[in-house]
User: Fold this.
Amino acid sequence: MKSKTFFATLLTLAFFTAGYAQTLDKAKLDQFFDRLAEKNKAMGSLTIAKDGNVLYTRAIGYSQINGTEKKPLTAANRFRIGSITKMFTAAMILQLVEEGKLKLTDTLDKFFPQVPNAKKITIVQILRHRSGIPNVKREQNSQRNVNTIPVTKDEMLALIVKATPDFEPDTKYSYSNSGYQLLGLILEKVTGKPYGEALTERITSKIGLANTYIATGNIDVSKNEALTYMNFGDGWKPVPETHPSILFSAGAIVSTPNDLAKFIQALFDGKIVSKESLDQMKTIRDGEGSGMEPFTFAGKTFYGHTGGADNYGAWLAYLPEEKLAVAYTTNAKVYPVKDIMSGIFDIYYNKPFQIPALESIAISPEVLDKYVGVYTPSDAPVKFTITRQGTTLYAQPPGSQSAVPLEATAQDKFKIDNGTPAGIVIEFDAAKNQMTIKRSGGERVFTKEK
Assistant:
């Protein structure tokens, strides 16, 4: 009798424990995303998967807007994923290491001797953003936004060759898109195949990612790709596109949240690289691994990457202990993506989470006009221009051809979501004719020109 009771107790425990582990408050997730959609604070698509099984998907907003005609986003829409591309690039480089076609200790001069410090820079230093290779950019074109103009691989390489290193290899960490572009060029040299072809052979066809590929041209709505928009209280407006050739192996992949969840699950399941290579990716130094970053949500450490350019973005996070993958892709960042992800995890783990009201602050044009003008700091000959269109202030940074809208958080405070947790905060003091720009690295005071 005792054994039967014991067995029944075990069964009951097992049943309720399993049930509890799988409890997901889908209604609350729906409410959170309903609020984001209703207040025009986000457009995007989410997948939550556990051990390869999809638990929740949701898409809000639109993939295409033509006046009053709006095409709703669905789970089938594809998005630019920005720097999550680096995870794919790093995985393929490590595959070449496993195949003996490359060594982590190989120096860059083996492939591109013309790059400054090439004899000292190793593959592993580039993977870990410790090479000193700076982020290179073309000079601005007064006629047109230079980011919309395609660049050839030779032009990109020439810019890297011409640039002065930021520091001596391995002396510090500094995130380098240009370093990952060089890894893409190395991949092409070693395999003898274009990056897109290598991606198909080595990852997407291998694990069945039907919606993941490298972009070569502008966003294509005929391929279910979502256009990018911005909204700061005056309706959704299209955003000029950075040409994917500029991003290449550092940020030009297109995917869906479902494919991204499959990708990171396969990566941790050993279907793309070996355990040793995965350990290499997730060994963190100065907050960065090799094509992988750690995040803390709900008190747990996840691995993955973030990505973004223009106003699109993506976030991929994986918790190995629970085989939990969360992938969010967006074609319109307004409410900070980090806060959206944090809310998702709080709801997932049944932690206290208050769905934000997301009420925008309306400021009269008369008040906004007091902030309009050209501002300069006392320590540099640069100009920062503030303009107004309707009920929105726009900031044009020095050297930029385009202005970005500012979102009001108080009568004299505004913010720009730049993908970091804190974003950029701009405070105005009309009486002193001053503007203070605050970001994670500190703050700077600008004075309005008379």
User: Anything to note?
Assistant: The radius of gyration is 24 Å.
